[in-house]
Specification:
- There is one protein chain.
- The protein is an all-alpha fold and 64 residues long.
- It contains two helices and no strands.
- It starts with a helix and ends in a 10-residue tail after the last helix.
Length: 64
């Protein structure tokens, strides 16, 4: 019985898996937070660019 308990206690493969799951969840969480920040900033910039391009004057004739 004690041999089985020692074997389970000394087994480390499961702990490595848990570490990878936690690290992966942290990376995904940071990515989602960054995406939210970038998305809101990009929306404002897109509006400014659209207004600038919309107010630009385009010449349709060539002048000599």
């Amino acid at each position: 019985m004690f041999k089985v308990i020692r074997k389970v206690r000394d087994e480390e493969e499961g702990a490595v898996t848990v570490d990878w799951v936690v690290l992966t969840a942290a990376v995904v969480g940071l990515g989602a937070a960054a995406l939210g920040f970038i998305r809101s900033s990009t929306g404002d910039l897109t509006t400014k660019i659209a207004n600038y391009v919309g107010s630009a004057e385009v010449k349709t004739t060539f002048s000599e």
